[in-house]
User: What shape does this take?
Amino acid sequence: RHKILKPNQKIIDLGAAPGGWSQVAAKIVGPSGRIVGIDLLEIEPMVGVDFITLDFLAPEAPTLLTDLLGGPADLVLSDMAANTTGHKQTDHLRIIGLAETAAEFAREVLAPGGTYLAKVFQGGTEGTLLADLKRDFTTVRHVKPAASRSDSSELYVLATGFRGSAEAVEDDS
Assistant: This one.
């Protein structure tokens, strides 16, 4: 619906296990696109996708992933969710923390104009995350996929039009 997947893209799928998003993306980007999925869990091999078993917070992860892609990413997907505790506020804070950390990672690996999509839960503390994303992306909004149950608090934050990293801006001056 939001047309974030396009042929020939370079995509990083954070928290890729079991591989559903990567599988869908591979069909759309085609053989000239590149997809790299990263997860702590091992993932079954899939045509058109390179999977690595590693924490995306590992210091070598950004360089390793962009090297596998052959350059900066056009799209960073994050469907990560921390194990739930059953305490709504705690679970919300944990997933927002993951989304904020994934957004920092995305800033390191995205090409200018790139897109970041991450799972969050409704709960009121997304303000800081949204403000940070609005600083670095031209458009930021919440989206709820049709596949998500209407009573679910799950939604996604979609940030498009990455303005570029601070390093790139400094290099241009």
User: Anything to note?
Assistant: The chain is about 35% helix and 30% strand. Strands lie at 10-14, 34-39, 50-53, 73-78, 110-121, 137-143, 154-162. The first helix runs from residue 20 to 29.
